[in-house]
Amino acid sequence: MRTLLDLVLPLECAGCGVPGEQWCTGCSRALYVPPVVVRPRVDPGVPCWALGTYSGPRRSGIIALKERGRRSVARPFGRALAEAVGHLRVAGEIDPPELGSLVLVCAPTRARAARARGGDPVLRCARIAAEQLAPETVLVPELLRMSTGVRDSVGLSAGQRQSNVAGRVEVVGVRRSRSDNGGARTGSCTVLLVDDVVTTGATLAESARVLKDFGVPLAGALVVAHA
Question: What is the pLDDT at residue 186?
Answer without folding.
Answer: 42
